[in-house]
Specification:
Number of strands: 0
Largest sheet: none
Strand content: under 5%
Number of helices: 13
CATH architecture: Orthogonal Bundle
Helix content: over 70%
Structural class: mainly alpha
Distance between the termini: 51 Å
Oligomer: single chain
Length: 245
């Protein structure tokens, strides 16, 4: 099997869930950068699952350590995994730094306790969503600093991803959803400088926070598809646009 086929199979397995916003971020990415976005999104799903869903802490720590070593191999020009091989030569220095920060963030997530209030939810979002936003932004020339200039955007996206996937009670869920909306609405209004995958994630995060209900894995929602399609064309949800204006 070719490296391209291996990458496609590996990425497809991790991005097969239409309930995950990253599915649409890849789908509506501009063609020249789509494969890089796909590789980063699939890697993020892998790292997130390793940091949050492995019951064996030793195994999870070992897997994250392997990715840390793989980053060093990537930087040295000897990437071994199909996803890092796909990224080899396509990462700016800012993207390489952002990728290292993402792995560090997931190492910290692994050590966290349960999410039981807004403070812990926000810390998780900053360690995951904010660093994902910086990495995605850095894939696009001229946007290397977009994630850093708009940390609220990544944190809002990260908070929205937590809805329905934690042990938060209803009151805490609503508080997380409200904070996500506030951060997304306050993010930089000049959306033209935000790469398309982030605009899609921003719009879908807003929709999730507004509905504040759990998403059903494996199920496609026509409303979310339409929201992602409009966002890819520069149209944010109407209520969000009014607040930002």
């Amino acid at each position: 099997m070719s490296d391209t086929a291996q990458l496609q199979d590996w990425s497809r397995e991790r991005l097969a869930d239409p309930a995950d916003d990253l599915y649409y971020a890849v789908l509506f990415s501009p063609q020249p950068r789509r494969e890089s976005v796909r590789a980063v999104a699939a890697l993020y799903v892998e790292l997130e699952a390793t940091a949050t869903r492995f019951r064996d802490m030793h195994v999870a720590r070992t897997k994250l350590a392997w990715w840390r070593d793989e980053l060093e191999r990537l930087n040295a020009g000897h990437a071994a995994h199909p996803v890092t091989q796909a990224l080899a030569g396509n990462l700016s220095s800012a993207a390489e730094t952002a990728l290292g920060d993402l792995i560090t963030g997931m190492e910290l997530v692994l050590l966290e306790g349960p999410i039981n209030d807004l403070a812990t939810a926000r810390m998780r979002a900053e360690r995951s969503g904010t660093r994902l936003a910086s990495l995605l932004a850095a894939l696009f020339p001229g946007n290397e600093d977009a994630g850093e200039l708009q940390p609220g955007l990544g944190t809002g996206i990260g908070l929205a991803r937590l809805l329905g996937d934690t042990g938060l009670d209803d009151a805490a869920q609503k508080e997380v959803a409200r904070t996500a909306q506030e951060l997304l609405a306050a993010s930089h209004s000049a959306t033209a400088i935000i790469p398309r995958p982030l605009i899609v994630l921003e719009a879908l995060a807003w929709r999730a926070a507004a509905n504040s209900g759990p998403r059903v894995r494996g199920r496609s929602d026509p409303g979310r598809v339409y929201t992602a399609w409009r966002a890819a064309r520069g149209h944010l949800p109407r209520k969000m646009s009014k607040i930002r204006a």
